[in-house]
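W.,

You were right to be curious about this one. When I first looked at the sequence I had no strong expectations either way, so I just let the prediction run and decided to look at it fresh. Below is the sequence, 484 residues in total, followed by the output.
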Amino acid sequence: MLKKLLNRIKNSFPHITIRSRYAVEYDSIKSQLVGIDNGIVLWEIDFDGKTSINPNNRVDWSSEFRQMLGFTDEKDFPGLLASWSARLHPEDKEKTLAALTAHLDSTTGAKPYDVEYRLMLKNGDYKHFHARGAAMRDHKGAPLKMIGSLIDISDKRDLERLVKDHAAGLEKKQIIFDSLYNVGSAISTVNKQTFEKILSKSMGVLGTSINADRVQIWRNENVGSNLHFTLSDEWLSDYAIKLESAPKCITYPYDVVPGWEDKLRRVKHINNPIIDLLPHEYTFFNRHGVRSLMIIPLFKNESLWGFLRVDDCRNERVFSSDELSDVNTAGQFLALALIVRDSLDAANSETEKNTELKHWFKSILDAVPVAISVTDADMNLTFINAAIENMIGKKRENIYGKRCNVLNTDICNTPNCGIACAKRFVNRTFYKSSGKSYQVDVSKLVDMDGKDAGYVEVIQDITEPGLQQELTFEEKINRSGFMR
């Protein structure tokens, strides 16, 4: 009799049990959210058993939540779901609301609300956020209230983008370097026609890497008493092929662009949309479909030899400093390669040819901004470029013929030595020195008979750029939470 009475009381007042359980569950969820996220802000949505969401759902936005977005109070950021949903990034809105709905529709809460999205701040900027939440439900599983957290992960995403961009930049530079190396290797080993194809391919790699449509090398020559520039070599994108272009070997006097000869002699780069040029300059380039251009002066023995020109025929833009640097390095290398090739073609004897080749090939390798060393088969140094000299603080003449461990890098005399790795058919190794990270690529050299003749090592500084000096790269990642 007593048991039946107790059951009647329980069935008549189910909310007593529900509310008691609700309070415990509320405290538990809130505690878990605070424990998971460091630097979180909280929010609460009332549903009263309705699973559908609408813009007028009441939401308790915490003061910290509003401040994170640049707002202050209920007046400028009302306690409605629409205050938040209207500020979701268009690309993230559908998936974010779908995740919220899926969690509410799951009567057991089996589908968690755990999503990242971009949210517009009061000033109109977007930031990346990570949101988590869980609903408290009645005895039928219908949501009564949802508690959630929000954390700003913009720094984490910025660091990820920095790492990705840095890796892409290194890969791009490696591709450009490889193409330039092919040009240098072909200077004295192929006929003129093949050399021009290799040169054009390298120019294409350079143009493609910066989304350009036209790459040209122009040489200076004297016509009478006036200096002219003549089109020597050219690469065109598929788009530029359809446009009007200057025929090879066409010559113009510098008078057609007054002031440019003096500017180039003073090592001044030109980097503009052509709409920013003077009217006569605009007319000169516009007829060839140019929208933006970059011009790099090229020198031979400190005298203006010509220039490298890069055209964007589709976009008005200023090329970035990194693009300017890559084009400048490549341009000087290609000009030296052409000078060497010209010198070899003009040489009348094998002695003159070898002397000229040695001089210019040294000049080419000295112009490359990465460290290069060459050893014989016994690991004795036969060549180092200027970058190696600067790295170790020694003149090449003083270490030629000595064992390569005279370079005194951190991997010398260890199993990670570049040549030791190459002998094990591992052509890449790494080391750190003075807070910097280096990548070493090794290739075997063979003589004319195909026999082993030595090794060439290329050392590149792959240290992450742009980080504060007082923080190591690993510390920067750890502080950001990137590896959590």
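Here's what jumped out at me. Residues 5 and 20 are 21 Å apart (CA to CA). And, maybe more interesting for your project: Confidence is low (pLDDT under 50) at residues 1-20, 466-484.

Coffee later to discuss?

I.
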